[in-house]
Write a structure and sequence with these properties.
Strand order of the largest sheet of chain B: 1-2
Number of strands of chain B: 2
Number of helices of chain A: 12
Structural class of chain B: mainly alpha
Largest sheet of chain B: 2 strands, antiparallel
Strand content of chain A: under 5%
Strand order of the largest sheet of chain A: 1-2
Helix content of chain B: over 70%
Order of helices and strands of chain B: HHHHHHHHEEHHHHHH
Structural class of chain A: mainly alpha
Oligomer: heterodimer
Chain lengths: 331, 267
């Protein structure tokens, strides 16, 4: 859904421009690294092709309605996600200027909602992994439909969040979401079907157009570890401070039934377990002892994550050593 | 006329308007782009209940339609994409926002009604501002303005080439649809079994055209970048134009002109 300028506040528009701009800058860098100037005119003409293809209405059998192609997924398959993202920006800009389909101020939002999710989430996270090894009709259909559905669901969720963050609509978040998501689910299915049909035709007639983008580039272990460490530090060390202090589902249920959130148990087994826990728990209740400082929560989040990581890596190494020894043993 | 033919007509019409030799079209494109963005930002920054403060912002499109000698009626068609979405979002406001603002003969005007009307007016003003930009500035000038803002050349080239080839590919798509319709005269729409081949044929023609385009560009010395002639500031109007508009926008934004005029008439 193309957002109009009236639906976004300047602050939200600025944030989305920054996010889309950062992604576009990265995409420009990736495209330039390919050092293939032939790609530039192809991107331009493909942009015009998607524009023309969007104008064609396809009759959906049995419904009496029609749908059309959005093109972001198709572009990603043929040009790659980075080139497709830049092409989609050009398309959205021309649409907003020529046909007032989407605003200039809301362009950052539209780029994020319609290009980013399709090119980087729908294509990279759904389409490409499904078609990693071999192409087949079933795989193309599945990948296209799932990729389009996911992109459109995320896009409509973003539209809802951006509109509500701008303070434009009085609709409650849940009601807005319940209105948007089912509509975009149907649109996603239709788009996925149209995209899959076109891709199957291309696969059967000019396979080289699809195969040139089919190499699956693995993310390096170092980059993946760095990203995971950063996410763990942010969640464990940062978000844990603002975690809800309300009881979780189980405690809430027990409180409603028993009148008390914690159950008291009696017996020697329970006493032994309790004494072991008292001796080993260095950060009781996720905080420093005899202190209500919020840094206790941060510290326990980070320490806990580190201990879990050490145990998991340790177990992994032990399993690796055992497997190596089994391979060395003569049969 | 089919949807595709309408689109081709609209693009050609806008192109003709932007090529006219009138003084507003000769103003530096970067100035017009910045004024448009400032105008849109100021319009959307108005509070949702500040309806009377927003109304004087109509001065900008009214004055510009007169200066650019363009028909306002033809621009109303541009609202067909924006108004339904804006109305869909704003229509629920009266049902959720019951803040009482005014009572006229037992008819209560609530905050929800005011915010819905404000939203629709904002939608109209912002669309008209973008339309006025594109009818007074051709796409090459807009691309030049983007380069002035240090937008990467690869992206600006995309916009230029996409615009250049839209009319051509819309024409080809129109031909394909017409050929299909002539072979299926009693059929409504396009059947599922030809979706793939119909769009696929258009795609192959586009790619082959793109390859020819690349060959012709290389033969003409293309090395990955287009070069633009610099457009300097040529008259005092190009300096006065943005200053006057910004002063007017700030006055409208921070001074409630409607209540000021009302107070003058009452007193």
């Amino acid at each position: 859904m193309h957002m109009a300028d009236a639906l976004v506040a300047p602050a939200v528009a600025a944030v989305m421009y920054a996010a889309s701009g950062a992604t576009a800058t990265y995409s420009v860098r990736k495209v330039k690294l390919e050092q293939n100037i032939k790609k530039i005119p192809i991107m331009g003409v493909m942009g015009a092709f998607v524009f023309a293809a969007q104008m064609i209405n396809f009759t959906i059998p049995g419904t009496g309605s029609s749908g059309h192609l959005s093109g972001a997924m198709l572009l990603s398959v043929i040009l790659g996600p980075y080139a497709a993202f830049l092409t989609m920006i050009a398309i959205l800009l021309v649409q907003s200027l020529m046909f007032a389909d989407g605003g200039l101020l809301a362009l950052g939002c539209n780029i994020w909602n319609m290009a980013f999710y399709a090119c980087f989430i729908g294509y990279l996270c759904v389409y490409k992994p499904i078609l990693r090894n071999k192409h087949s009709r079933i795989k193309i259909i599945t990948a296209s439909i799932l990729g389009c559905i996911l992109s459109l669901q995320l896009g409509s969720l973003s539209v809802t969040i951006q509109t509500l963050a701008s303070g434009i609509s009085e609709l409650p978040f849940s009601t807005f979401l319940l209105t948007m998501q089912p509509i975009h689910l149907a649109i996603g299915i239709v788009e996925g079907v149209i995209t899959s049909v076109v891709l199957i035709f291309i696969y059967e007639t000019r396979r080289e157009l699809i195969d040139q983008q089919s190499t699956y580039n693995r993310l390096s272990i170092k980059k993946m570890m760095a990203i995971l460490i950063l996410i763990v530090a942010l969640i464990g060390g940062g978000l844990s401070i603002v975690a809800s202090s309300n009881p979780d589902g189980l405690e809430w249920s027990i409180e409603k039934v028993m009148g008390n959130g914690e159950l008291k148990a009696e017996g020697s087994v329970y006493d032994t377990a309790s004494s072991v826990q008292e001796k080993t728990a260095i950060l009781t209740d996720y905080g420093f002892e005899n202190s209500d400082s919020k840094y206790g929560t941060t510290f326990s989040g980070l320490i806990g994550s580190l201990v879990v990581a050490v145990i998991c890596i340790g177990c992994g190494l032990v399993i690796k050593i055992i497997k190596k020894q089994k391979k060395r043993k003569p049969e | 006329m089919s949807k595709l033919s309408n689109a081709i007509y609209e693009i050609n019409y806008i192109d003709e308007l932007s090529q006219r030799k009138i003084w507003i079209n000769r103003i530096h494109p970067l100035i017009k782009l910045m004024i448009t963005i400032i105008y849109i930002s100021i319009v959307v920054s108005f509070d949702k209940y500040n309806l009377f403060g927003l109304i004087p912002m109509a001065l900008y499109p009214v004055i510009l339609f007169n200066i650019s000698e363009t028909s306002f009626i033809l621009s109303v068609k541009k609202l067909r994409f924006v108004l339904p979405i804006v109305c869909f979002v704003g229509i629920f406001n009266p049902f959720f926002d019951h803040t009482q603002f005014l009572e006229i003969n037992k008819f209560v005007i609530t905050g929800g009604m005011i915010s819905a009307i404000t939203l629709i007016i904002k939608g109209i003003f912002t669309v008209l501002a973008s339309y006025l930009l594109i009818i007074t500035t051709n796409i090459e000038s807009i691309c030049y303005a983007l380069r002035c803002l240090h937008i990467p050349d690869i992206f600006v080239t995309q916009v230029l080439l996409t615009y250049r080839y839209i009319t051509l590919l819309l024409g080809q798509a129109n031909t394909i649809i017409q050929a299909y319709s002539l072979r299926a005269p009693y059929q409504k729409g396009i059947k599922m079994k030809v979706w793939g081949s119909l769009v696929g044929q258009l795609l192959f023609r586009s790619i082959d055209r793109a390859n020819d385009l690349y060959d012709s560009m290389v033969l003409r010395g293309y090395k990955g970048e287009f070069y633009y002639a610099r457009k300097g500031i040529r008259s005092y109007m190009e300096i006065l134009y943005p200053i006057l508009w910004i002063i007017l926008f700030l006055i409208i934004r921070y001074v409630n002109l409607v209540s000021l005029l009302g107070n003058i008439f009452i007193s």
